[in-house]
Amino acid sequence: MGRPIQPPPPHPSGATAPNIPARFVPNHVAIVMDGNGRWANERGLPRTEGHKAGEAALLDVVAGAIEIGVKHVSAYAFSTENWKRSPEEVRFLMQFNRDVIRRRRDEMSSWGVRMRWAGRRPRLWGSVIKELEDAERLTKDNDTCTLTMCVNYGGRAEIADAAQAIAQEVAAGRLDPRKVSEKTVAKYLDEPDLPDVDLFLRSSGEQRTSNFMIWQAAYAEMVFLPEHWPDVDRRSLWRAVEEYASRDRRYGGAIDKSAESADIP
């Protein structure tokens, strides 16, 4: 029998999650943790210090997700495009992601967090893969919230890899190309059982998806935070959820108000 699940510690300010009906709380929040480098530059610090400061922000946001009822959080930790950065920064980010997973795994597991990994294996350090797979294995039975760490991940890369796998199935005669559908593609994504993104959250004022979960976020509501990632905490997430809850999600449908009025006796 595993350890009993404990709630995350409260926010130091004493703030508590807003009371939002469960049906208006997003099931899956995808997060682009942007602005670490700019946060550090504004303070005359090396970019690496911004990444270090961002660790606490992620932990606090996961705590806030649990408190408000979000079941899935996906965090863009290292993209397929991040290899273009300086060798020094890439080396730091590899070591940092590895160490964060090792350092925070047990704490998040005590909250009931299941940790998963989405991304490509090629080029990724073996030690990083080991920590990600260990975290997946050790937390697989947790069900309070799922944190998907997206490391060496890119939305286009994910779709290209799925297309390649489908093509191999067709070539082998195991799949009829005429039966390939959106459901088929979804089955070959990195985490096929990951639900669609409801809320896409990005910090630091930038307003773009940057190749993150472009398949899963096709109908996501976008919220862009002005603050850099190290300045984000669970209260930022709660404000974004309140914004999400106020929106009318139609998924391509529409309501004809004039026709609706005509039906009123």
UniProtKB/TrEMBL annotation:
One Pfam family recorded for the sequence: Prenyltransf
Residues the entry annotates as binding Mg(2+): D34, E221
GO molecular function: transferase activity
InterPro entries for the chain: UPP_synth-like, UPP_synth-like_CS, UPP_synth-like_sf
Binding site for substrate: 35-39, 47, 51, 79-81, 83, 85, 202, 208-210
Enzyme class, UniProt record, top EC level: transferase
Listed transmembrane segments: none
Cofactor note: Binds 2 magnesium ions per subunit.
Domain of life of the organism encoding this protein: Bacteria
EC numbers for this chain: 2.5.1.-
Catalytic site positions: D34, N82
Cofactor(s) needed by this chain: Mg(2+)
SUPFAM superfamilies: Undecaprenyl diphosphate synthase
Keywords: Magnesium, Metal-binding, Transferase
Subunit-structure text: Homodimer.
Family (UniProt): Belongs to the UPP synthase family.
Cross-referenced PANTHER family: DEHYDRODOLICHYL DIPHOSPHATE SYNTHASE 2 (PTHR10291:SF0), DEHYDRODOLICHYL DIPHOSPHATE SYNTHASE FAMILY MEMBER (PTHR10291)
Function description: Catalyzes the condensation of isopentenyl diphosphate (IPP) with allylic pyrophosphates generating different type of terpenoids.
Official protein name in the record: Isoprenyl transferase
Organism: Oerskovia rustica
Top-level taxonomy: Bacteria, Bacillati, Actinomycetota, Actinomycetes, Micrococcales
